[in-house]
From TrEMBL:
Official protein name in the record: RNA polymerase sigma-70 factor (ECF subfamily)
Record-annotated RNA polymerase sigma factor 70 region 4 type domain positions: 106-157
Residues annotated as domain DUF6596: 175-275
Domain called RNA polymerase sigma-70 region: residue spans: 12-75
Naturally occurring in which organism (per UniProt): Cellulomonas humilata
InterPro entries: DUF6596 (IPR046531), RNA_pol_sigma70_r2 (IPR007627), RNA_pol_sigma70_r4_t2 (IPR013249), RNA_pol_sigma_r2 (IPR013325), RNA_pol_sigma_r3/r4-like (IPR013324), WH-like_DNA-bd_sf (IPR036388)
Family: Belongs to the sigma-70 factor family. ECF subfamily.
Organism classification: Bacteria, Bacillati, Actinomycetota, Actinomycetes, Micrococcales
UniProt entry keywords in alphabetical sequence: Sigma factor, Transcription, Transcription regulation
Length: 407
């Protein structure tokens, strides 16, 4: 029963919240009713068994919970009457509108009236179904800070009467940047979950991010960054079957079984990258990241990777995005071309900015290992393990550290 409930949450949460938000026009009510439906399922399914259609049962229960809550709050009399009118028949959408509640919900959560951090966090919670602790780890902030951020964002939507709809064609381009940032973070959380008590990989979440990105692309088929993000997701998702070993440890790119990669996703991702290159337009951040992944997935063996090409692409990316994480990833490529000592020297400048980021210390540990600075390498592994949230990453880092101790 527990497994079915977990799967139902992954598959149905966004649908339920989005449908409730459209029907009742209240994000708080939608989230609370969905949560109450799952809480009821925990009690009822343990006694009555799992229903034949778990998603339908949850949706029906959530709708009833929402209407019951409205009945209890007299100040929402008008909303209650409207809800009853909508309970059986939904109003028709305008001709040509995309009929997807979750896409409407994304654009609502990513409205420019909200700060970018709030847009991302709110959508991860409302659409992705991530918990507040998971979102907090994604942003390297305290749980209480993230909880307040999400609460304020929902209050701002209600106070500003932000509409629950897909923007007009005229407004779509300006609204897309925040949506893409949200979808990218949702995908990343699915590809390698940050929580220690969650599955290391959550295919339902990556599939949802890809599906919604495809929908955004139907809205903006000529937008290079939408195509770039989709290509990036596809090329990354293609490697997922080889991402985690049988013992639950993370498998780094260089050690993955490339025969296990999804060839169809790679072909589609490469095709999108080629289309963008052929357009002649200057590439944006997601297009460059997709091109880097295309280089990696084009090599049948890790030793065949064109690292100079990877560095050249990172050099373009640095001009668009000067974040220390981009510099960290560039240093990994530099180590393959110029050697680990050169890469380590470049990491020294990033220590202050990335001291709380586990991947920084994991990268240092691997580079220190390659130059036989074992004591420092073990210390860096220890720091990375202390900061890493994902069980698969922790298992991999511990194994690499213990290999040093055994020699």
């Amino acid at each position: 029963m527990t497994e079915t409930l977990v799967r139902a949450h992954q598959e149905q949460w966004a649908r339920m919240v989005a449908t409730l938000a459209r029907r009742f026009g209240d994000l708080d009510l939608a989230e609370e009713a969905a949560a109450e439906a799952f809480a009821t399922a925990v009690e009822r399914w343990a006694v009555d068994g799992v229903p034949p259609n778990p998603g339908g049962w949850l949706t029906t229960t959530a709708n009833r919970k929402a209407i019951d809550r409205i009945r209890r709050e007299s100040k929402r009399d008008s909303l209650y009457r409207e809800a009853l009118m909508l309970s059986d028949v939904d109003p028709p959408e305008p001709l040509g509108a995309i009929d997807d509640d979750r896409l409407r919900l994304i654009f609502t959560c990513c409205h420019p009236a909200l700060a970018m951090e709030a847009r991302v966090a709110l959508t991860l919670r409302m659409v992705g179904g991530l918990t507040v602790p998971e979102i907090a780890r994604s942003f390297l902030v305290q749980e209480s800070t993230m909880g307040q951020r999400i609460t304020r964002a929902k209050a701002k939507i209600a106070a500003a009467r932000i509409p629950y709809r897909v923007p007009s064609p005229h407004d779509l381009p300006a609204r897309t940047t925040g949506v893409l940032a949200v979808l990218f973070l949702v995908f990343n959380e699915g590809y390698l979950a940050t929580g220690p008590d969650t599955d290391p990989v959550r295919p339902g979440l990556t599939a949802e991010a890809i599906r919604l990105t495809r929908l955004v692309r139907t809205l903006l088929p000529e937008d290079g960054e939408v195509a770039g993000l989709l290509a990036l997701m596809l090329l990354t998702e293609a490697r997922r079957p080889a991402r985690v070993a049988a013992d639950g440890a993370l498998v780094p790119l260089a050690s993955q079984d490339r025969d296990a990669w999804d060839g169809a996703l790679i072909d589609e991702g490469h095709r999108l990258v080629r289309e963008r290159l052929a357009s002649g337009a200057a590439p944006g951040r997601y297009q460059l990241l997709a091109a880097i992944n295309a280089v990696h997935t084009d090599a049948r063996d890790a030793r065949d990777t064109s690292w100079p090409q990877v560095i050249a692409l990172y050099d373009q990316l640095v001009r668009l995005d000067r974040s220390p994480i981009v510099a960290l990833n560039r240093a990994v490529a530099v180590a393959e071309v110029d050697g680990p000592d050169v890469a380590l020297a470049s990491l020294d400048a990033l220590g202050d900015a990335l001291d709380g980021y586990h991947a920084f210390h994991a990268t240092r540990a691997e580079l220190l290992r390659r130059v036989d600075r074992r004591v420092e390498s073990r210390a860096a592994y220890d720091r990375a393990i202390a900061l890493a949230g994902n069980t698969a990453e922790t298992a991999f880092l511990a194994r690499r550290r213990d290999e040093l101790r055994a020699t």
